[in-house]
TrEMBL record:
Protein name as annotated: RraA family protein
Organism, scientific name: Splendidivirga corallicola
Gene3D superfamilies the UniProt entry points to: Ribonuclease E inhibitor RraA/RraA-like (3.50.30.40)
Keywords annotated in UniProt: Signal
Family annotation (InterPro entries): RraA/RraA-like, RraA/RraA-like_sf
Amino acid sequence: MNLKILAWLIVLSPIALSQLLAQTPTKEQMIFFTSDWKGERFPDGRPKVADDVLKRMKSVTIEEAWGVLRNEGYHNQFEGDWQPLHDDVPVVGRALTVQYVPNRPDVSDQIKKKGAADGRIGNTNSWPIDMLSEGDVYVADGFGKIVDGTLIGDNLGNSIYAKSKTGVVFNASSRDLEGLSEIEGFNAFVKGWHPSFLTEVMLLSINAPIRMGAATVLPGDVVLAKKEGVVFIPAHLAEKVVVTSEVVRLRDLFGITRLKEGRYTPGQIDNKWSDEIEKDFSQWLKAHIDELPVPKEQIQELLKKRTW
């Protein structure tokens, strides 16, 4: 469908809006928005970044991820100023995106009717939870609403963790901080905490592109949420972010080791490495391959690409 026609349908017709949104886009639409991803996809077309990449992503720092994305021309993938449930529990996974907007009765009534006809159960803020699979992160734009903008409490939090084994990132608030904190392994990055219930908010879309503060997020993006903030990594760049981080980690460890040994000066390590240091680095990787904080298979791949 022509995007201009789609925009006019959304503006002119609440019924058309309810038919087109509050549900996942078609597979063709999903592929259109994520066309740079060439790997595996979920049946609905959402990019499915490999579990191994997600596992390795947990060791990536926010700064490393941000640096790679900036170098690739992606300048709007970070959002800060969160109130996480836990400072020390990272959230990593594939984004399942949701958009909420201020309630408008004529539209919300149509969306709820269509949801009931489609077999959806419960309040609309539980619909995305039913779609989660392991490794997903429920990412919702709740337009920054705090009072009466609590998208989940501990009941829904338990359901989310049972399905995804990760957590949530909400441009909105949550309630039941104490109860949520008892879910081992779960974390929530939210804009605030409040005891109120969700009201005057309606679900607009699931698995469509959304805005999260200063960032644009697509379904299937890899979420990297840590104390400093949240980076939303396009699926097609996730492996590059991981590999770059691993190389930086290894080079830093090698440099620190050699400085402690007095083998090189700080000036030699902090500048572009000479051929001699690069050769020493490759030999060091081979000698310590079973001890380093990067999977052995990844080090072997790195060595294959080196000319030493």
